[in-house]
Amino acid sequence: MKYLARRLVHATLLLAAVSLFSFAILQLAPGDFFAPMGLNPQISSRTIAGLRSQYGLDRSFPVRYGHWLHDALKGNLGASFAYNSPVAPLLAVRARNTLLLTGTAMLLAWLIAIPLGMWSAVYRGKWGDRAGAVVTSGLLTVPDLVLFLVLLLVAVRTGWFPTGGMVSAVFGDLNVWNRVKDIAEHLFLPALGLAIATLPPLLRHVRSAMIEVLEAPFIRAARAHGITERRVLFRYALPVAANPLISLFGLSVATMLSTSLLVEVILSWPGIGPLLVDAILAKDVYVVIGTVMLSSVFLVLGSLFADLLLFAADPRMRVE
Amino acid sequence: MTHRQKLAGSLVLLTSVQILILFAGFFAPYNFAVQDRQRPFAPPTTLHFMDLRGNVHIRPFVYDLEDSGKSILVSQSDSEHCYPILFFVRGMPYKIAGVFTSEVHLFGVEAPGHIFLMGSDAYGRDQFSRFLFGGQISMLAGLIAAILSLSIGIIVGGIAGYYGGWVDELLMRGGELFLALPWLYLLFAVRAALPLHISQWEVFLLLVSVMGLIGWARPARLIRGVVLSARHRNFVVAARGFGASDLYLLRRHVLPETYGVLLTQMTLLIPQYVLAEVTLTFLGLGVGEPLPSWGSLLSSLQQYYVVSSYWWMFLPALLLIPLFLVFYTAADALQELHKSVTL
Questions:
Q1: Chain A stretch 168-207, residues whose beta carbon is closer than 8 A to a beta carbon of chain B
Q2: Is residue B146's pLDDT more than 90?
Q3: Record: contact A145-B328, CB cut-off 8 A
Q4: CA A296 → CA A179, A270, B181, distances in Å?
Q5: A93-319 CATH choice from 1.10.3720.10, 1.10.3210.10, 3.40.30.10, 2.60.270.50
Q6: A150 in contact with B at a CB cutoff of 8 Å?
Q7: How far is B333 from chain A (nearest CA, A)?
Q8: Contacts of A31 in chain B (CB under 8 A)
Q9: What is the pTM of this model?
Q10: Same structural domain for residues B194 and B103?
Q11: What is the tens place of the pLDDT at every residue in A259-271?
C-alpha cells in the first residue's frame, strides 16, 4: 500500500511539473494567436486587445497559471482560439479516437508478442528463432516514419484499405453493424502499423524473460516430475516471466503514444496527434497544453495500471 | 563475424556515407536549390549503354526526353538527344564545409541534358543532390544534439554520482521526470514555444538545442552509475589519500572510466536525433525551404497525388533504412565490445 501511495504522489508531481513546464515555455514564446491579426488593417488594435483580455492573455504568468490550474481541476481546460470552443470536449473526441487506435494496436502487439516470444524461447537457436531474430532486428532499424509511409504507399497503390479519416462519407446512413465494420476497416491499417512499430522490443523482452525462466531449476524439476510441456510453459513459466513484462507494459505506453502521433498524422487518423500539430502551427496555446497534459495523464495511468497489475500478479509485492 | 569485424565494417560504411554527405557539393551534380520548372516530378534518369541503333557505348549516356524514345527513333537523329555522362565536369560553384570553393562535380551531363538519378521533385529539383545536401543538415543536427545531451549528461551524472546524497537524489528524480514524459509531445510543446517565422539557421539551432536538452536524462543515469562505482575503486581512494582535489579526481581518474559508456551512447543518440529532426521537419516544425533536410524530402509524401503517382519520391525514405541499419549495427557491436572489455 505504501508503495502504491508513493507511486500516486510521484504521478501527481509529474503531472504538476508537466503543466508548469509546458505553461512556462509557452509563456516564453514570442507572439500569440492574435498577433498575425495585427497585420490586417481592417482589425483595429483595440479589437485585438479586447480579444486578448477576453481570453486572459493580457494577465501575468502566475495569475494565468493559477486560473488555468483552478479550472483544470474542475475539468475546464480553457478555450481554443482556432476552434472558438472549449478545449475539453474537443480533446475528449480526439482522445477517444486515439485510445481506440492505441488500445487496438497494443492488444494486437501483445497478442503477437507473447506466443511468438514464447515459441522462439522454447526453440532457442533453431532456424525459426534465428529467422525471427533477423526479422526483429530488421524491423527495429526501420524508422517508424518510413514504415508508416510505406504502409500509406501500399494502401494508396492497392486500394485495399481506406486511407484517411476514421469513417467513410456515408457513415451517417449506415446501420449499427455497418458502422462498426466501417470503423474497423479504417482502423486496420493504422493499428497494424502501430503494432508492427512497437512489436520488436516487446518480442525481444518476452523471449529473453522466458529464456531466463526456462533455465531456472524449478522448471527442470517440474519437467522431471513428468508435468506436460504445455503445463510447464503456461502454468509454471509464464507467470514467473510475466513480472518484467508487466513493467514493460507500463513503459510501452509512452512509446505507443509518441508513435501513435506519427501514425495519426501520416494515415490521417483523427486522434490527438493531428490536433496537436495544427495547434502548434496556429499557436493555439490551451489546446497544446491540454494535449500535452492529456498524453501525460495517459502515461501516468498506464504506469499506474501496470503497478496495480504487478500488485495483483506478484504476491511478493503485497507482502512488502 | 566477430563484433570487431562488424564494428570495422559498419564504421567503414558510415565513414564513406559521411564523406558523401560532407562533400555533397562535389558528388551532387546540381545545387540543392536549382529548379527546373520544365521538369517537375521527372522520373529517375536511366543510364543507357546501347543506343537505338544497337551500338554499344563504353561511356554511359542519357537521353534528353525520357518518355519520347519513339520520336527520337522517327527523327533518326538520336545522337542529338543523347548526352554522355562526363566526369569531373565544371558546373555550379559550391562550397565544401563552408570554406573551400570549387566548381568541379564528380559527374554531370552537358547543359540541355539532365541527369536526375533519383528523379526530381515538384519544382524540378534533383532529388539525389537534395538527398546528399539534406544529409548535411540532418547529420549535423544529430551530431550537435548528441554532443549537447552527452555534455549535460556528463556534468549532471558526474555530480550526482560523485557527490551522492541529496544532490544525487534531486538530480536523479528530476531525470526520472524527464524520462517519464512522452518525449515527442514534449518536443512539440517546446517547438510550439519557438517563433514560427525566423531564419532557417535560427530554427535549426533552436531545434538542435531543444532536442539535446530534452535527452540528457538517460546518459546522465548511465554515467552516474559508472561514476558511482568508480568513486570507490582503490586507485581513486588512493589518489584521494594523497590529497588530490575533487576536480582533479573527476578529471584524471573518474571521468576516463566513462569513455566506453559515452562512446556507445553517442552511437545510439546520433541516429535517434537524426530521426527526431527528420520527424519534426516532416511535420513542418523543423528546418524549412529552401534548405533541404531528410525530413523535408519526405514531407512531400503527405500529398496524396505524390504518393499515388510518383514512386521515386519514396527513394529517400527507403535509403534511410540501410543507413540506420549500419548505425545500429555499429552501436550494437560497440556495446558488445565494451561489455567484453569491462567483464
A1: none
A2: yes
A3: no
A4: 31, 19, 7
A5: 1.10.3720.10
A6: yes
A7: 13
A8: 195
A9: 0.82
A10: no
A11: 888 888 888 888 8
